[in-house]
Fold these 2 entries.
Entry 1:
Amino acid sequence: MKPEVTTDFQQGKAQIFKNPFLERLTKTDPLSNILTYGVVNVILAYIALEIIELSLFKFIGLFVIGLFFWTFAEYMLHRYVFHWVTEAQWSQRFHFIMHGAHHHYPKDEERLLMPPVPGLILATLLFGFFYLIFWILGITNLVYGFFPGFFVGYLMYSFVHRATHIMRPPKRFKKLWHHHSLHHYQYPNKAFGVSNTFWDQIFGTMPPKAQRKKSH
C-alpha cells in the first residue's frame, strides 16, 4: 500500500533532528519571522525601485502578479511536494522533515511558521528559479518586482496558517478555518489551499459538500 499523509495526530511537539543545533533551526516564533523576512522584503523592494529603477506603477503591478502567483504555488507545493511520499525510507524522511511532522503534531506552535534559516535557503532557490525563467523570457529586471509580491504572499499565507491552528476562527473566515481542519483531520488528499480555496475549486480537490456545510 502506498504511504499516505496521516490524519492521526498527537499533542505535544515533534522531534525532527537528534542534533540540538539542527533541531533548533526547525523552530521559530512570529517576531523572528516578521523581523527576518520583513528586512529581506524591504531590501528587495529597495533593489527594485532604486537600483533596478522600476517605476512605482510597474513595481506595484508586478507585486500584485507575484502575490496572486503565490496562491497557485501554495497549492501546488502543498499538494505535490509536501504531500509527496513513497515507500522509500529517504522519501519518508524528507516528507517528515518538510511536512509530515506538522500533520503528526498540528498544534506544535514552534513549527507553524517556516524558520528563518531554511526559509531563506528556500527563498534563495526560488528566486534563482524565477530569475532563470525571467532571463529566458528576456525580462530579467522584472523579477525584482515580481518576487517581493511572491514573498509577501508566502508571509501572508504562513500567518493565516498559524492562525488556523491556534486561534478561534473570525466569523468572516470560519469556512477557511474549517477547510484547513478538514485537510488535517479527515481529508489529507483534499483541501490543499490554506489562505484560500480558489485552486481547490479549480482542480477539484474540495472536501465533500456535506462536510463543508458543517462550518456554518
Entry 2:
Amino acid sequence: MALFTRTKRNAAPAGTTTPAAAPVADPTFAALTGDYTIDPAHSSIGFTVRHAMVTNVRGTFGEHEGVLHLDGTDPARSTATLDIKTAAIDTGIADRDAHLRSADFFDAEAFPLMSFRSTAAEQISGDRFRITGDLTIKDVTKPLTIDLDFHGSATDVYGAERVGFEGRAEILRSEWGLTWNAALEAGGVMVSDKVKLTFDISAVRG
C-alpha cells in the first residue's frame, strides 16, 4: 500500500518560479512504518453482484489472512499480501453458497485459496491511496487495482497498534474463468459479470 507521503511546497518570490519540492515524509505517517498483520476478527472482505438484473446479492469471505508492510518514508516500498479461503464464502443462503463453492464458480475443493500480491502502490491525494497487484482465482492470475482510504491509526485497549483502511475494486468475473450463468426468459442473465469488491481492513503491528 502506497502510504504516507505528503508534499510540501515553499512559496516562491513574486515573479519567479521554482520546481516542485520533492515529497517530504509526514512524521506522523513515518512513525507507522513497519509490518502489520491483518486482524480477521475486525476485518471484512466482501462483494456485491447483480442478480436476475433487478437486485444485488452481497456476501463475504469469512476466513482470510494477510500481511502489510507500510513504509512511511518511501511509500513505493509498501506492500500487501492477502489470502482468502474460497470455501468460506457466505451470502446468507446455504444452497447458493454451496453452488458458489462448486466447480461452476470457485471450485473450492480444487482451489481452496484466492490470493492477492501487490506489485505497485501510490498516493492519490490526502489519505487516498491506490495499490496494484496480481489477483489469482482458481488457476488464473490477472492484475487488480484497489482504491484505498486510510482511516487512521490507534492503540487499542490491549496495547496493540492498529491501522485501518477501506478499499474498493471492480472485476469482471469472466476474466478469471468464473463464467457460469443462466439466461432469463425476459432477457438478460441470472448473474452479472461485474463484481464489486470491498475491503474493510484492521491490521496490527508486529
